[in-house]
Specification:
The chain is mostly beta strands. Helices cover 0% and strands 32% of the residues. The chain has a domain of 77 residues.
């Protein structure tokens, strides 16, 4: 991906050559102020970060699907999925910059994780556990920022 006046998305050859130069092919257009991007769960959509929004595009046709505003920050520079792929993490640059968590576009936010299924001989004796607090179900609701050190 490149940014600027000729912002575009490029793809590498399906079978890159082991020697020589592999030419990238332009497959789509990108917002001129794009700063980062990530594939979303299912690999069928791509989220592109700009200074003010997450732009959602189709990962096959590279066509625009939606735009979602992000929390205000000095300069949005980083975008990734959290470890369980249920939220996008949006960050700025600089020391002590904030990282915001927001819902994945078009995905319901899980209220709790599904338990692992064990065979009868592996099923442990139940123990008391603390009650889980469900996550909010509304997508793209900014949460309290996390401080970077």
């Amino acid at each position: 991906m490149t940014k600027g006046r000729k912002a575009a998305i490029y793809a590498a050859p399906a079978k890159p050559a082991r020697q020589g130069v592999n030419e990238l092919e332009q497959v789509g257009l990108a917002p001129s102020n794009v700063t980062d991007g990530t594939f979303l769960p299912g690999w069928d959509r791509i989220a592109l970060l700009t200074n003010s929004s997450v732009e959602l595009i189709d990962a096959t046709s590279y066509e625009f699907m939606a735009s979602v505003p992000i929390p205000s920050q000095p300069r949005a520079e980083s975008l990734t999925l959290d470890m369980d792929q249920s939220s996008l993490l949006v960050g700025s640059e600089g020391k002590k910059s904030k990282v915001y968590s927001m819902g994945v576009p078009g995905e319901p936010r899980p209220s709790k994780r599904e338990p692992c299924k064990a065979s009868p001989e592996q099923t442990p004796t139940p123990k008391a556990s603390p009650k889980q607090t469900p996550r909010p179900s509304a997508p793209f609701t900014p949460k309290k920022p996390v401080e970077n050190s």
